Amino acid sequence: MSLTAPTDASALRAAFSCFPSGVTAISSVIDGEAVGMAVSAFTTVSLDPPLISVSIQNSSRTWQKLRTAGRIGVSVLSHQHSAHARQLSLKAGDRFSGIPWDVSDTGAMFVQGSPARFECSLYREIEAGDHSIALLEIHYLDADPTSAPLVFHASAFRQLA
Fold first, then answer.
1. Whose C-alpha in 90, 105, 108, 122 is 20 to 30 A from the C-alpha of 62?
2. pLDDT, tens digit, 9 for 90 and up, residues 121-155
3. Nearest to residue 110, comparing CAs of 144, 75, 159, 142?
4. Is 149 within 8 Å of 77 (Cβ atoms)?
5. Using an 8 Å Cβ cutoff, are 16 and 153 in contact?
């Protein structure tokens, strides 16, 4: 076995892509504007208090807006949402065109048909290299464990077999 130092960003991305992850949308209505993006670096953290985390590039202008929202909607995307995930990953243009959404009274936005939806607030942010880890406290949730999630693996969206 021969291990190498993680000095090449493309080699590091290729190694990271060996681990499958779910795909989520994080979004909110802020000052009457829909703000959101796709996030594949999502994980459960704690039952008490109920916490999840997302990792976001420090250069993200979308996160700079979302972090100020009183409530943020986190939608675990289903296998039927791959086109929505691509659209929510766009750097420019209307990320929300044609995507069916629900909005809570607090402004948290959710993609319709998601297997799980969490209404959250920012609990804490942790600096982590070129990313920040946002710990989000769950205030409300809805889940349908029978709905198959969208999976990101080897730099592509996939479905569970």
1. 105
2. 999 999 999 999 999 999 999 999 988 888 887 77
3. 75
4. yes
5. no
Q: Tell me the C-alpha distance between 55 and 112, whole Å.
A: 23
Amino acid at 97: S
**Distance (Å, whole) CA 31 – CA 51:** 26
With CA atoms as reference, report the closest residue to 118 among 76, 70, 82. Answer: 76
**DSSP characters over 82-94:** HHHHHHHT-SSS-
Q: How far apart are the first and last CA of the chain?
A: 31
- Dig out the tokens for 69 from the structure: 């929202």
For the chain, the farthest-separated pair of C-alpha atoms sits apart, in whole angstroms, at 55
Cα Rg for the chain, rounded, in angstroms? Answer: 16
Per-residue pLDDT reduced to its tens digit, 53-84? 999 999 999 999 999 999 999 999 998 998 99
State the pTM of this model: 0.91
Report how far Cα 113 is from the mean position of its chain's Cα atoms: 15
Side chain identity, residue 30: I
